[in-house]
Amino acid sequence: SLIVIGLSTVVLIGFYGADYYATPVIERNTHSLHEMLSPTGFWGHGMGFIGTFMILFGVAMYSLRKRWGVLAGFGLIKHVLEFHIFLCLLGPALVLYHTAFKFGGIVAVSFWSMVTVVASGVLGRYIYLQIPKSLSGKDLTAGELQKHLKLVTQILITQYGIEDSRIKNIDALTQPFDAGEKASFFRTLPKLMWHDFKRYLKI
Questions:
Q1: Residue 69: other Cβ atoms inside 10 A
Q2: What is the tens place of the pLDDT at every residue in 141-160?
Q3: Do 42 and 79 form a contact (C-beta atoms < 8 A)?
Q4: Residue 94 CB neighbours (<10 A)
Q5: What are the φ and ψ backbone dihedral angles of 174, each rounded to 5 degrees?
Q6: Would you list the DSSP string of 152-174?
Q7: pTM for the model
Q8: Of 65, 61, 71, nearest to 91 (Cα)?
Q9: What gap in Å lies between CA 169 and CA 167, rounded to an integer?
C-alpha cells in the first residue's frame, strides 16, 4: 500500500504538471500553472515544505526507534524501517517537484546532496537485506542460521515428502556468495549484486 501511495502521488503530480515542467524556464511565467507549481507557487512551495517535513520526520522516527529503549515496544523495527524508507523516498520526490526541475547556485548543491543521501540509503537498504534476520527483525548469528536451515530442511522432508535430490537442487540454488578473504567492499558489492540477480533468474 505504501508503494501504491508513493507511486500514485509521484505519477499524478507529474501528469498534472507535465506541460508546465516541459515548458522552457524562460517561458514559464506566462503558463497557466505557474502560480500553482512554481517553486514560490501555492503547490510548488507547499510540496517543498511537505517533502522536507517527511524527510526530517522519517529520519528522526527511525533513529529514535532504533536507539531509544523506551520505544522498543513501538512496533517491529522492520515496519518502522519500511515507513522510514517510504517517507525518505517520497519526501525527496516532492522536493524535486518543488524545484520545478530548475537547479542553480546553492540550491543545486543542496539538491544533489539530498540525491546522494537518498542513493546511499537505497544502497544501505540492499546491504541491510543481506543480513539474515528473524521475523522480529533480530540479526541471526551463523549458528542460528544453520539451526534454522536444518529445521526447514527437516520440515520439507518429513511433512512435504521432498526427495533428497530436490533438497540438493534447492541448496545449489541458494548457495551463499563467497567474495574471498581479501576482497574489498567496492569489488565485492557489484559481484554480490550480480550473484543475487543470477540466483533470482535460476529460481
A1: 6
A2: 888 888 888 898 999 999 99
A3: no
A4: 21
A5: -110, 30
A6: HHHHHHHTT---HHHHHHHHHHT
A7: 0.68
A8: 61
A9: 5
